[in-house]
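Hey, why these numbers?
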Amino acid sequence: MLHCLIPKIYIENICKIDVKKLKEEKNIKGIIIDLDNTMVPWGKKELSEDIISWIQKVKKNFIKICIVSNSHSGHIREIGEKLGIPFYSSRYKPAARPFKEALKIMKTNNLETAVIGDQIFTDILGGNRLNLFTILVKPLQGKDSIGTRIVYRTLENIFMESWIKSGKLKLIKDKWPA
């Protein structure tokens, strides 16, 4: 069961992902991306220039992208429209439905789609259950909703420390793929 929580890649932030190599080496044609603490700090609406630039690289490399978030729909809509990318608002990650809806929106299949997010119990579990290429990023900030902080982050930290010590997981701090 715990293997469903382990991401394929654990990287410092999305800007370290080399989009061109992701497409060429991993055959990724679509990216399902989380919003809060992956693209924007939790509770914020401002996108950094680095994130905007990275999204533009995704588009320039003809990789489709869709935001899937458990956040409220107005927040997701605002960011999606600002970036010119589709979005799907769901309060049900890690259920299969939000991920399947994103696959339909992008017209990609599970073998050519990556999931990028900051939580193992929503983004990674949901992606792994559908055999998507899962990429865990460090949260942009330590602030989360109270439920996420108390329940999920505590358990995540326990699992992550264990996986890192055992060699099942390694934090990548440089560009990836190298």
Summary: The chain has a mean pLDDT of 90. The two ends are 30 Å apart (CA to CA). The helical segments are 19-26, 49-60, 73-83, 96-106, 120-129, 146-166. Residues 36 and 65 are 16 Å apart (CA to CA).
